[in-house]
Amino acid sequence: MAYGNDPYFAGSRxxxxxxxxxxxxxxAEGTVLYRFVDATxxxxxxxxxxxxxxxxxxxxxxxxxxxxxxxxxxxxxxxFAAILYDWSEVNCVVxxxxxxxxxxxxxxxxxxxxxxxxxxxxARDRNVVQHGALTGKGATRDSRMTPMQGSLEVYxxxxxxxxxxxxxxxxxxxxxxxxxxxxx
Length: 184
Description:
The protein has helices at residues 6-9, 13-16, 44-47, 56-69, 73-81, 132-135, 169-172, and strands at residues 23-27, 32-37, 52-55, 92-98, 102-108, 112-113, 127-129, 140-142, 144-145, 155-158, 173-180. The protein is of the alpha+beta class. It has a seven-stranded antiparallel sheet with strand order 1-5-10-3-2-4-11. It has a two-stranded antiparallel ribbon with strand order 6-9. The longest helix has 14 residues, at 56-69. It is globular, with a radius of gyration of 17 Å. Mean pLDDT is 86; it is low at 128-135.
C-alpha cells in the first residue's frame, strides 16, 4: 500500500522514540485526528502542522478524565502527553481529516526532558532534585515530564512528514476546525 507520507517515513523512528514507545501503525484515509496546540504562539492552522496527534478514542479518554477529575482539558492533555510548559500553553485543540493513508508510529508516551545543556525557560518545568546522602552532590535542576501512567492508557501518534523539517500538513490532511480550551 502506498502512503501519503512514504517519503518521510524512513529514519523517523528515532524521532518518534524521543516521545513514545513506537510501533508501526497505519491510519486510514478519512480518519479524524486531534492535536493540542498553543494558539498564542501561532494560528491553529499553523499549529496543526506538527507530528504529534491523538486518535478519537484517546482524545476522548483525556477529555473524560479532565471532566471526571475537575481538570481543564489543557492540563489533562499535559498530563497524558507529557507536554512541557516551555513547549506549549495547550490552549487549543485542532481536528483534522486524513486525506491520504498514513504510515505512523503509535505508542504510550515516554518521560521527556529538556535537552541537557539547555535550561527550561518556564519555571513550571524546573524541578529541584535532591541528591544529598546518596551521591554527595547538592540539589540540581531537572526539567522533565512523565506522562500519566496507570489503568487508563493514552496512545499518541507520531506522523512523519508533519512538522519540522517537512511541513506537509496541507498535502496529507485537511483542517476541520479548532476549539480554544482552558489551560488551568
